[in-house]
Design a protein that fits this description.
The complex is a heterotrimer of chains A (342), B (485) and C (169).
Chain A: H1 4-26, H2 28-42, H3 58-68, H4 79-95, E1 105-107, E2 114-116, H5 125-133, H6 136-146, H7 150-181, H8 186-191, H9 207-222, H10 234-237, H11 247-272, H12 288-307, H13 315-341
Antiparallel strand pairs in A: 1-2
Chain B: H1 14-32, H2 39-56, H3 74-100, H4 106-124, H5 128-146, H6 153-184, H7 189-200, H8 204-220, H9 229-236, H10 239-264, H11 269-291, H12 297-318, H13 321-352, H14 364-367, H15 369-383, H16 389-403, H17 407-433, H18 449-467, H19 470-480
Helix pairs in contact in B: 1-2, 1-4, 2-3, 2-4, 3-4, 3-10, 3-13, 3-19, 4-5, 4-10, 5-6, 5-10, 6-7, 6-8, 6-9, 7-10, 8-11, 9-10, 9-12, 10-12, 10-13, 11-12, 11-17, 12-13, 12-16, 12-17, 13-15, 13-16, 13-18, 13-19, 15-17, 15-18, 16-17, 16-18
Chain C: H1 2-23, H2 27-47, H3 51-75, H4 91-111, H5 123-126, H6 129-138, H7 142-163
Helix pairs in contact in C: 1-2, 2-3
The chains are: A mainly alpha (342), B mainly alpha (485), C mainly alpha (169).
Chain lengths: 342, 485, 169
């Protein structure tokens, strides 16, 4: 018979999943507003302004618009795949959060109960995230193919080629982190970077910064953001794999993309910047969750900053960077890391 | 498993490691050679293999190494010599052959070396996992080599058929291995007999493993009804590769067949002998009957090789020392006589531009009297006529079968030999009794030295093995003694 | 109990999707069903206390190999060219033979029984699943592991040797 503890555990887990899902679902709303605002200021203009003060209600207006738009399914599309492709893109982006810790434990101030800030303390967490995170690409490939349109198909093809090329480099970078922290468990990885900022993986000289650079470049390519967003290159492919999508199905793709950006920011923090550890021991009176959020926000801002600063690469350049620079570099780096750890 | 119990013994994997290193260094060398100089890789590979030969022929006594994965006993040493000799002959012929079909590349040579390494892994494998990866290494090399004449659709067809059916057979073999593992809890060949022996003899779960493993091996040796890939792959592949597949791949597959069925599954002999008996009989009869109408000599040799596989299977059915040693001796003789026959087919292709069809051999005795005589020798040896090596090989196998009281199987073996004499003799008949029809194409100049060397050496060995088999047979018997219990 | 229940769910879905792989006409749909099948196998690995293998299965097969499959299918535009029948009426006897074989194999598998001892690792050791796999791979299975690396190299060289030849100047 299930014990009371077990039932409580299950209830707590369900609540956590529900809360986390709600947060992730809502997250793109402020992020789109932020992105457009940042874009505006970088390009010396105002950005959204009309709906609400400083355009802060703009995301709600967008959401309402998307909800009421007609959901068009092209006549010659592969109906079933066309309809489920956005879901295939979105579900893995959420599923990844099963293994992502947002902190160690958190003491609720009033009742004094401790809550774990993660869903599952998986032993193969890093591998799980890479594996599940990689599944999102099927949504884009299948969506591109099912649309039965040449732009969408080309977008899907680019997506798959890009994904394969950069997945290798990203996994090598994660292997580097695993070698440095000696575990695949994300909590352990964060724990190994405790103390001061000197023990962060990023500062494990000389390999740490290189691993971070490989991880960052590869991840930007994997989440299809500028300067690597060749799969939705509006100049040549109108808008790539989601050309034929409209309404809610289109917004699912966007949702997946924003969530992936948040995931990558979180992973950068966990893998390289000490997670929720404070940079100096004397600053640890500030709660860990605040440090964590602060670092993640910085990376989210960083990705938006990059988007409106760098031009897009050509496709052959993209392949060249992946295969001829990142992969050899990561192989050499693995060797150096291994030698340093002996 | 702690390191101490692993028994890390580098000597036991030395031959295959050396061949793999040789292949890798040829791969690197390939970058530095100009397009016309690729033959150098072939010659260097031959020299390398000849250096490895004495090392490979040396058996290492002692327990299986690397956690029971590899064993370098006299049995594997015997087979390693067959592989290396076959590969040396094939490589030597390949240098000129590739020039003729105008696709000289470095890859060809080191893929052959990888195939040899794979065969060596097979012959020394003492664990079903190691055995499987060895099979895959060899088979993958041969898939590539079969499809190597990219401009010829027959080659692509052969390669594709070989690949698809080979992958299927690997699947069946793995299925058998997993049933065996599920029953005995081990993949180690010497432990399976101990753990699954007594209790498993009547358990259908274990028998399923035995049957599926046998089916997987039957694919690799091209036994009826798992033979369908063989004629197309043989015809499509570059001819030296065909020779190597028919000799090396067959010998390696029989090596694992012997080791698994003699060492791991002897307790189930009362069940599997019926299966292998039927397999052997059907293969012999099918191969020799279907070879008769073949007009293309390579297809004819393909069906003849199927028939030979059936005869060799008799040695496994017999399950005694003489049978197993007979299998080894047969494969040694087969290596020389089959390589000789293929060398002559290639020789004709070189000097006359034909030789693919049986009718091309008309009037050969007057144009190339020596070569025609040697071809007759190889064909009669393949048919099993004394005093050639083929006769002694068949004699050993059939006498082992009689010793083990498989009279009917021995009788079928004799009948199939008689049938096979028909199509072998037909070529001889064409060579000696028929005149060439129409204008025979003019000789295209002196062929490379390689043909002469290979043809004469293989002919000499075929005769030697027929006239003086004792020392070779003794080595074979000594090699199988530790396996048979 | 729970585990068996989940095992049968995963196994059923795996088999049904595997049948769909070979019976649907559209290659892209086949690939999608293959992805489903591979995911079920990964789930079964989780039930077998091997999360590392499960993650590796999803990562390598589903995440990388199948993406390449789909890429090839789309580039070759096989999506529209449905397979043609080349069986010349052999499908009926083949189906009968395969059915007989299937029944025989099933009968033999059901009548027999597995006797292999349960795994040598207990639950506690399997918490360090990744380490267990790594240790086995680099001690007991080091020899096949090295051979596999040669196989992969050969596959790479072989594929390039077959495909790139025509393009050479």
């Amino acid at each position: 018979m299930p014990t009371l503890d077990l039932i409580l555990e299950v209830i707590l887990l369900t609540v956590k999943v529900a809360v986390l899902t709600q947060i992730i679902f809502a997250l793109p709303m402020p992020l789109t507003w932020l992105e457009r605002k940042i874009a505006g200021h970088i390009q010396v203009r105002l950005g959204p302004w009309r709906v609400g003060p400083h355009g802060i209600l703009q995301p709600f207006a967008d959401a309402i618009k998307l909800l009421f738009k007609e959901d068009i399914v092209p006549d010659k599309a592969d109906k079933i795949l066309f309809k489920i492709a956005p879901l295939i893109a979105m579900v893995p982006a959420f599923a990844v959060f099963a293994a992502i810790p947002l902190g160690d434990t958190f003491k609720i101030p009033v009742i004094g109960a401790e809550v774990k800030l993660y869903l599952s303390d998986m032993n193969v967490g890093a591998l799980y995230i890479l594996a599940i995170g990689g599944l999102s690409v099927y949504g884009m490939i299948l969506g591109g193919w099912a649309s039965n349109s040449k732009y969408a198909l080309l977008g899907g093809l680019r997506c798959s080629a890009q994904m394969i090329s950069y997945e290798i480099a990203v996994s090598f970078a994660v292997i580097g982190v695993v070698m440095l922290s000696n575990s695949l468990n994300l909590l352990e990885i964060v724990k190994s970077q405790g103390g001061s900022f000197l023990s962060w993986n990023f500062l494990y000289l000389p390999v740490g910064p290189v691993w971070f650079a490989i991880f960052l470049i590869g991840s930007v390519a994997e989440i299809n953001r500028i300067p690597f967003d060749l799969s939705e290159d509006e100049g040549t492919l109108s808008s790539g794999y989601h050309t034929e999508y409209s309404g809610m199905r289109f917004s699912f793709f966007m949702l997946a993309e924003y969530v992936a950006m948040v995931t990558v920011s979180i992973l950068s923090v966990i893998f390289f910047f000490g997670g929720w550890n404070a940079p100096f021991a004397f600053l640890s009176f500030i709660p860990p969750i605040a440090w964590f959020m602060g670092k993640v926000c910085f990376f989210i801002y960083f990705f938006m900053w990059v988007r409106f600063t760098l031009p897009r690469y050509r496709y052959d350049q993209l392949m060249k960077i992946g295969w001829k620079i990142l992969i050899p570099l990561s192989l050499v780096n693995i060797l150096i890391t291994g030698l340093m750890l002996i | 498993m702690p390191i101490e119990t692993l028994n890390v013994n580098l000597l036991s994997i030395l031959p295959m490691a050396l061949v793999a290193i040789l292949a890798l260094s040829m791969l690197v060398l390939d970058f530095f050679l100009k397009k016309g100089d690729k033959g150098a890789i072939g010659y260097l590979s031959i020299i390398g293999l000849l250096i490895v030969l004495p090392i490979a022929s040396n058996a290492i006594e002692g327990a299986p190494a690397f956690g029971g994965m590899v064993i370098a006993d006299a049995f594997s040493a015997f087979f390693n010599c067959i592989f290396i000799l076959a590969a040396v002959f094939a490589l030597y012929l390949s240098v000129d052959y590739l020039k003729r079909i105008n696709s000289e590349t470095g890859e060809y040579y080191y893929i052959v070396l990888f195939a040899v390494a794979g065969m060596m892994v097979m012959s020394s494998a003492n664990d079903l996992i190691a055995l499987y990866v060895g099979i895959e290494l060899m088979a993958l090399s041969f898939y590539v080599l079969t499809a190597f004449r990219v401009r010829d659709t027959k080659s692509s067809e052969g390669g594709l058929k070989y690949f698809v059916l080979g992958a299927l057979s690997s699947g069946i073999l793995l299925y058998g291995i997993s049933f065996t593992y599920g029953f005995s809890g081990t993949t180690n060949i010497s432990d399976i007999a101990r753990l699954a022996g007594g209790a498993g003899a009547n358990n259908t779960f274990m028998l399923l493993g035995v049957v599926l493993t046998a089916a997987g091996f039957a694919f690799k040796i091209a036994a009826f009804p798992f033979h369908v890939w063989a004629p197309d792959a043989y015809e499509g592949a570059p001819t030296p590769v065909t020779a190597l597949i028919s000799i090396g791949s067959k010998a390696a597959s029989f090596a694992v067949f012997l080791r698994v069925f003699i060492v791991a599954f002897p307790a189930f002999q009362s069940h599997w002998w019926k299966l292998l008996w039927a397999l052997s009989a059907a293969t012999m009869l099918y191969g020799s009957v279907v070879a008769i109408p073949q007009k293309n000599i390579i297809r004819m040799l393909a069906y003849s090789s199927i028939a030979h596989a059936g005869v060799i299977l008799i040695g496994i059915v017999a399950l005694n020392g003489a049978g197993a040693a007979g299998v080894m001796y047969y494969l040694l003789v087969y290596a020389f006589m089959n390589m000789g026959a293929f060398a002559i087919v290639m020789y004709l292709g070189r000097v006359r531009g034909n030789g693919e069809y049986v009718s091309d051999y008309a009037g050969m005795s007057s144009r190339h009297p020596v070569i025609a005589f040697l071809m007759a020798l190889f064909l009669l040896s393949l048919a099993g006529i004394p005093p050639t090596g083929g006769f002694m090989a068949k004699f050993f196998i059939l006498s082992a079968a009689i010793k083990a009281r498989y009279y009917w199987l021995a009788a079928i073996g004799v009948v199939s030999t008689a049938i096979s004499l028909f199509f072998y003799a037909r070529v001889v008949f064409y060579m000696y009794m028929k005149d060439a029809e129409g204008d025979s194409p003019a000789p295209a100049g002196r062929p490379a030295l390689a043909y002469d060397v290979v043809i004469y050496i293989t002919a000499a060995m075929t005769m030697l093995l027929g006239l003086y088999p004792a020392p070779f047979m003794e080595i074979a018997i000594k090699a199988v003694e530790p396996l048979i219990r | 109990m729970f585990e068996q229940f989940f095992f049968y769910i995963f196994a059923t879905v795996a088999i049904v999707s595997a049948i769909c792989v070979i019976s649907v006409r559209n290659p892209v749909h086949s690939a999608v069903f293959l992805i489903v099948c591979l995911l079920q196998v990964a789930a079964i690995f989780v039930l077998l206390r091997s999360p590392f293998l499960a993650a590796a299965q999803v990562f390598i097969y589903v995440g990388a190999v199948m993406v390449l499959f789909l890429f090839a299918v789309m580039v070759l535009d096989m999506g529209k060219a449905h397979w043609k029948e080349h069986l010349h009426g052999q499908s009926a006897p083949a189906a009968v033979l395969a059915g007989i074989l299937f029944i025989l194999l099933g009968y033999m598998a059901l009548k027999g029984r597995m006797t292999a001892p349960l795994g040598t690792y207990n639950e506690a050791a399997l918490v360090k699943n990744t380490e267990v796999v790594g240790r086995a791979l680099f001690t007991k299975y080091i020899f096949p592991f090295e051979v596999v690396s040669v196989i992969l190299l050969l596959a790479l060289v072989g594929a390039i040797a077959l495909v790139m030849r025509e393009k050479r100047p």
